[in-house]
Amino acid sequence: MTAPPVSTPAAAISRSAPGRQLSLKARLALWCVLVIAGSLLASSWWMLAQVRRQAVQVLQRSEVQNAQMLARILDQRIRQMMMSLDSGAAAVPVSRLGDGQALLAFMQQRQATATLFAEIVLSDAAGQPLVTRDEQGVRLGGQAGPTRSDIRRVLDSGAPVVAQWVRAARIDASMMYFAVPVLDREKRVRAVLSAGLRLGSRDLLDDLVAGGGLEQVRPRIPSPDLPVTTVLLDRQGVVLAHPDARLLLRPAGSDPGLLAAQAEVVGPQWLVLRLADPQAWFGAFDAAVLKSGWIALCVGLAGGLLLMAWLAWQLRPLERLEGLARRLGQGDAVAEQEWPQARGEIGAVVEALRESVQRRSAVEQHNEQLLRKMRSVLHTAPIGIAFTLQKHFEFVSDEFCSLLGYEPEALKGEPARIVHASQEEYDRLGHRVAEAYAGRGEFAGDLEFVRRDGSHFIGELLGRPVEPGQARAGSIWLLRDVTAERAAHRELAWSATHDPLTGLLNRRALEAELQRLLPQVRAESPAAALFIDLDHFKAVNDSAGHAVGDRLLREVALALAATVRRDELVARLGGDEFVIVLMQCDLDSAVRVADKARAAVERIELQHEDQLLQVGASVGVVPIAPGCSSVAQVMQAADAACYAAKAEGRNRVHADAGPLPGGGAAPAES
Questions:
Q1: What gap in Å lies between CA 131 and CA 120, rounded to an integer?
Q2: For the chain, what is the radius of gyration of the CA atoms?
Q3: Per-residue pLDDT tens over the stretch 590-618
Q4: Under 8 Å between Cβ of 518 and 541
Q5: pLDDT 10s digits, 130-145
Q6: Which residues contact 348 (CB under 8 A, 6 or more apart)?
Q7: What is the 8-class DSSP label of residue 337?
Q8: Helix (H) or strand (E) holding 297
Q9: What is the pLDDT of residue 2?
Q10: What order of strands is seen across the sheet that includes strand 577-583?
């Protein structure tokens, strides 16, 4: 009998080793592919989804603010037009409504109102046009004007009315009317004064919807380059303004799938709508999300294949072990030096190799995750980041490119000069940066930058060298747009030095400016101060109220500012007291200016109910002596001269020349 072959350990290794080796490679490769592809897909999708959600929220908040801003602008325009029409109604010769010549003269004088409206109509209490002014001129009678129902609303209510649109043959020639009552002395409605705007007029509506309300040129058909549409509806839901002229005066439809923000125009109860198509805004973004998923999958597959090839290279010693095992199974002799020192050592080597591969894979995955996180932080940081070397951009973040109007990575390799407003400023920046690096080791400053489209903005630039003390190694820069922030600071500074009611300088700013100007006064370059106190202003406040008093103060401020040169100091000290400082002006000239200012104030008339309100002005004039360094002395002397003007009978000018050289006193003028 023949004995069955004996299974030696070497033969067992020869049969089983290839299966274990191939299975190990397959499992490692599959695991790596799944982890890499899954990580890339999950992180990319999550990050892009968060960015899209935040972008939608920012768009909605922005459009709500835009709608509210447009509503306020429109409401303000309507108020201004109604005020102009009210002023015209107050001037209607009520007692001469049957006098055609008087009506023609009245309408001829409405030049200011005619610049605001395309048509002005004065109708009687029966709704019949008495006199009309339009592009054809001024004429008695006429067929234009608001509807009879709108005129009847004014006659019945005695209150101003924003009338309905009146259609014409051409839609953009249709008219919208504003109507106010004309009252007699007994507050009875005797007539109606109305004024109309064409649908195509830019005075009220057109520029609010052109380009989403943000451009100056109105497209007649919506453009794909303008994904935000502004629509104006009246209280019945009729379209009053739309970029597409074909939709005007039609009932508002529905646009499913649009993000909408709305705000109400308080006066006429109109509605401003801001419509944004998410597909127009985020279509490219959604496509990028899908594309990034495919890229992540391809990168994961490629990484897995590369890792499998690397593992195959690293596991080549197993082939030698397999060959040795097969030779042993075939009974071939193996030299001692061909074997590992012991079988256990071969297992230890394989185990060590396996652990080494695992550790190396874990380290690479960890490094890759850290690298992805660093790139994500860098590219999603809310501040622009750039690295320059030898005056060229070596790296730029997405936010840096976005601030300057470039696509991501578009600035890489470009000279840094192209983002600066001028070559001179760029050259000065080089010297400033060198001095800052040599001093405190970093640079900080505001500069003017130019975007790719040619627009400019103010940016806060922070920079420091990559290696301290080694400017040639390059610099890291941080950039943010501070245009609005700096403008807000300037507005705050203006508010601190100006009177909020009249816009004139306040007392603190006047005293500071006067203190600065006093050393400039010379005998050959005289100066003078005017102290103005309104006469009978308290009576206006008591009879008409503080609102009318404030309006009168604003009119006085405008009149005083118009009396002097633009560079002269005009200030309101508080209440009804004003001061004017005249530089390079002798006393005689100052007296003439003071009398001109007094006359300008005296000419101001305000109609309040059935009262015609007027005030006078007592003006004190004093010269500013060369060498005077006390603001308080100048103000006290001017105040005393003003007091003297009041004592002499009010509404007059009193000039006090003060002591003359040699101790004499100059006579006073008034």
A1: 8
A2: 42
A3: 999 999 999 999 999 888 888 888 899 99
A4: no
A5: 888 888 888 888 766 7
A6: none
A7: G
A8: helix 278-314
A9: 34
A10: 569-574, 577-583, 527-535, 616-624, 653-655
